[in-house]
Sequence to fold (493 residues):
Amino acid sequence: MSIEKLESVLWDSANKLRGGIAASDYMHVVLGLIFLKYLSDKFEVRYNELVKEGLGYETDKDEYSKDMIFWIPEKARWSYISKFSKSEELGKILDEAFIEIEKENESLKNILPKTYSKLEIDQRRLGELIDLFTNKLDTTNANGDFFGKVYEYFMGKFARNLGQKGGEFYTPKCIVELLVAMIEPFKGKVYDPCCGSGGMFVQSVDFIEKHQGKINNISIYGQELNATTWRLAKMNLVIRGIEANIGDTNGDTFHDDKHKTLRADYILANPPFNVKDYGQESLLEDPRWIYDVPPKGNANYAWIQHIISKLSQNGVAGFVLANGSLSTSQKQEYNIRKKMIEDDIVDCIITLPDKLFYTTGIPVSLWFLRKNKQKQKGKILFIDLREKGTLIDRKIRELNEEEIIETVNIYHNWINEKDYEDKKGYCYSARLEEIVKNDYSLVSGRYVGIDDSGEMSKEEIEDQIKIVSEELKELLKINDELTKKLGDILSNF
Fold:
């Protein structure tokens, strides 16, 4: 099935739901049905093959599992369910189908949707969706990448409507590709503490396959807070045949760490940006805060320290973070960044162009940490990609393959001390003493794009304004609290 035809069907499916439920729920309704059809189609193709052979093996579950095909009970097969598209009991039939599939397949336990009878969607619309997929969605020849494409389509179309909620788990593909290619997770443990739909893992596996590596040489660990997204991740990985430990349930990485003893060789992450309330009060003595307790009002440096705590002795991490973290002067964040730089754990900072994310306009950068530098000690590489990327529409930009490859080559040449040279306005290898001189700022413009006048770049000015504004808000809040307390005290006299 071509991408164009698939997208046409998916758009039609959204139109079937339009007006019945919120746009943010389209994806979850549709993905569950497509997942069911995908599993069922794969099963029925193999079932019919075995029937044709005439040896009676069509009831032997091993004949399916050896080809990574799930056993689908009769009343859960699409051919059975499609007969009830006009039934008022359709939602109930779907829920029962998913329950039966989970009973027969341990790896699918607790991850399939079972809410179709409870959805705020009338059964007629649901039936129309079943008919649409029956007539126009052919998944019999689809590979493991199919489900990922479906997911990507829905996120691309509807992420704008999802707001920050969507941005918490959707990372643009070009950013994921860049992160993975930079750290090259060929062998060892791969971890994502906020794994969303599992995109980092999928891309890691794709990278290994493209470079003739062995999938069995890596083990995958992850965690996701949102229950729906956690199930999406499980579905995404299962359908691709990727084994991963992302916990038995969803969970809060800060307060319910599913992998407390894990030390990962590679960490990839896109933590939610600038989370204000992450429960800092109950984490004041947390051993993960090796540099300083992160501030109450922003989780960015909590994520950074969590990631560092999970790195193995020679571990490497690559993650996305809002640009404000590069130069924040907030006392605790400044102390953490200062100590990280002095410990020589920061390897590379890549400033990204704007408009890469569907869900936020916050400028972001990629951070790369290396636990035990063997080369380029006492140095940090800065790469400025703000002028890179191509607008695919008025609001969204993408990095192309050539730009990704070029960026990766610059980093790898630098790390290997081979054929690297600074390029004005593009890349610069800064020594520790230069960074100290710039008050431990990691804003690339201070190093890559320094002009003779020493003037701050537009990006730096905007960052500083944002930082000062946030600090002013915090001070005003404290002032209001103190004023109230003083008023209460005076009223008692």
Q: What stands out?
A: The two ends are 79 Å apart (CA to CA).
